[in-house]
Amino acid sequence: MRSYGQYCAVAKALDAIGDRWTLLIVRELAVRGTCRYTDLRNGLPGIATNLLADRLRDLEDKGIVRREAAPPPIATTVFQLTDRGEELRPILHALGRWGASLMFEPADGEAFRGHWFSLPAELFLADHEPDAQPITIELRTGEQPMLIETADGEVHARPGTAEHADAVITGTPQLVLGVLTAKLGLTEARDLGLRYDGAPEALRRIQPRAAGVD
Amino acid sequence: MRSYGQYCAVAKALDAIGDRWTLLIVRELAVRGTCRYTDLRNGLPGIATNLLADRLRDLEDKGIVRREAAPPPIATTVFQLTDRGEELRPILHALGRWGASLMFEPADGEAFRGHWFSLPAELFLADHEPDAQPITIELRTGEQPMLIETADGEVHARPGTAEHADAVITGTPQLVLGVLTAKLGLTEARDLGLRYDGAPEALRRIQPRAAGVD
DNA sequence: CGGCATCCTCTTTGATACTG
DNA sequence: CAGTATCAAAGAGGATGCCG
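The joint structure predicted for all components is written out below.
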């Protein structure tokens, strides 16, 4: 992209990461950690493959992404954020907070990936009983299942399934996100097609308490 | 811009404000408050006028900007951020912090506007003696002069000149920003062409103390 | 299969000129 | 002042091909 040519920190940041798709690539690397090219493509539905290659080169040149030959057992290259790239997290967080209120509009036909739950989990969920036994909630949204786990007062999400989850939530991403962030009541969500198996206490333990997701 | 079509808060935020120039328009309205079309054009060197008009329409449609006929004495329309638009400030701040480290590279031939100092003033400067008499520093960078003022422990910048400034700093934007953020020592900056008139204590009172601008 | 490069079309931009 | 109109150039999107 052509530079804005302005001596302003915001303009300079946008010169570096304002290109279309760029911040979404950073999002993928931020929430998933080390990724192969194919992982990135899968996590970025809609991107043209040549564009992904272009952007990765740009990001590498700018010191935001590091490309590495994966350790011996695997014969592939992997991509990960550099320290400078990790410093972009506050930007992703600010965007995620602002964008959160757009998540409860229709949104039909949109692509979804389970690991995208990592962002709202970090931003909006917290363990209100950090000293109690940790809990696990499994999310099933039609995509790859995700686990929500408590640790050190925080809530994290990672791909996987649990043998003894404290709760299992099944439904569309909107409904699951709605109940997680307490934007939607559990009974209301059930009427809309959500399935919740387990103790409601598990959910209440991590839901945002104050102003909610906005 | 075409939507990313992803059910993710970051993608949705970028759908709304990821267009080229959009966040810079928001920056202008955020640091200057109410603006006329011409003010925006002046604060956005390089933008094509049709693009500015397009973006303003988009932003209005999205509820980020409000367009108003100015009160009677003035015969013009003015633009300002809505509440939803004000909520974009954390994004600008995150971008500004990340972009700050790009401000000390060559950067020749870049456009500059004095009011852009408002952002770094808010982000990096603080009054370390909030109970003492407020101070004023005048910045002269070849553009419109700016005043740096202390109030309630914070530091703000606004266009203007002062009769009795505690210090007057004259030089290129890089040099002025360098000494303000303590990235550059005063004597070093003087060797590079900066002029500082007044008490060095004024500068030290507001400079970042800890890790600096990075 | 993973990791691109090419080709082509379509959309967005940038620059400039013009208007109520 | 506050835009619209026009047009060339750049960039994005989509399909496909290549190569270890």
